[in-house]
Design brief:
Radius of gyration: 17 Å
Strand order of the largest sheet: 4-3-2-5
Number of strands: 6
Strand content: 25-35%
Structural class: mainly beta
Distance between the termini: 15 Å
Order of helices and strands: EEEEEE
Largest sheet: 4 strands, antiparallel
Helix content: under 10%
Oligomer: single chain
């Protein structure tokens, strides 16, 4: 694959400017029409779960999002223009 890169080579790629965003999917599987903007990401990853905390803000003008409501949130972690990203373990 000519455009494939490994995780360790990502630091050598010139990053594309972007603002991290989140997409919210509601319990009925519809997508909330407003994307959230990430304003904080915890720099420490929990070694047991592989997770880290993220905070995002998004507009809620019609009060469609309510406290305690179930949603799914997707976070775009990285965007590398024109590249495919594969874990190094795939290339022995």
């Amino acid at each position: 694959m000519p455009n494939a890169v490994t995780l360790s080579s990502v630091s050598r790629i010139r990053p594309v400017p972007w603002q991290p965003t989140v997409t919210v999917t509601l319990a009925d599987n519809s997508e909330y029409p407003v994307k959230g903007v990430v304003d904080f990401a915890d720099p420490i990853v929990d070694p047991q779960t592989g997770t880290f905390g993220v905070r995002a803000e998004l507009a809620n003008p019609n009060q469609k999002l309510l406290p305690g409501q179930f949603t799914r949130v997707k976070l775009l972690l990285m965007y590398v223009n024109g590249q495919s990203l594969f874990p190094e373990r795939l290339f022995p």
